[in-house]
Write the structure tokens for this entry.
Amino acid sequence: MEEGKRNGVFAMTTTKIMTMMMDKRLVVVTRAHNNNTNNNNKEEEEEQQKLLYKFWEDSERLAILGLWFSLLAVATFVAPKTVGSFDADLIAQLVSSPFQGQVNPLFEALFNSLGVVPMVYACLLVPGGGEKQPKLQPKFFVGASFALGFFALGPYLIARTPVINGVKKSNLGFITKNILESKINALLLTAFSGFLYFWAFSHVFDAAVVSEFVTLLTKQSTLACVSTCDLIVLSLVMKTAIQEDLQRRSSSLSSSASSDVNPLFYLLPVLGPSLYLLTRPELEE
């Protein structure tokens, strides 16, 4: 009897000890799981912080913001008020009779340049943006810039987070890979830009054409005034986009070499950036 009691007490004691050990193990596992969860949450928070670019701490982004408000002020307060359907008729002539002398040649070259520059920005920004920022896709802003120019593109240039590393050509979408990265596309942009320069310079020494353009810009057309200022601003902020694109493609070069941009590419409006697209290195596969 006594031996049976001893065995029963021993079994109960052993069971309690095992239960306590299991409880402790469960606590340890739970704590480890909580620690892993906390670490994952911290990593996600840090990643989110990286994506939230603090543009207010970047003097260059603040300058772009200032240019955006300046362009808005020009469009609102400075540009001449169009009388009647003058601007609508101007656009109709540009579309229906391109380069036929129906519109002032200088303005016609400038207006068509506003079709080239957004395409250049698409080639510079879309391949390196959007993968890590699903809520800030460059293609939407670039697409809108074909109609709204810097008014649409400016907010993206201010708020975006630069993506320099980890961009592979094999990961790009069909349009990005086959059109925006295409040298044929770059050649067409360069050829058309060169034609626009030829068209403008073949008329720039005609005093009557220059006088007509100045009158159009300062007295007759809101479209002409805002379009001119828009092209100037888009050209002024081109350097950073070109520089980032070159760094994205120059992993084999030194940091100083990959950040050196030929001044011709951003100092020569429209044609310079098109030449950059024609000569830039390919993305890694």
The chain has two domains: 1-51, 56-279. DSSP finds 14 helices and no strands in the chain.
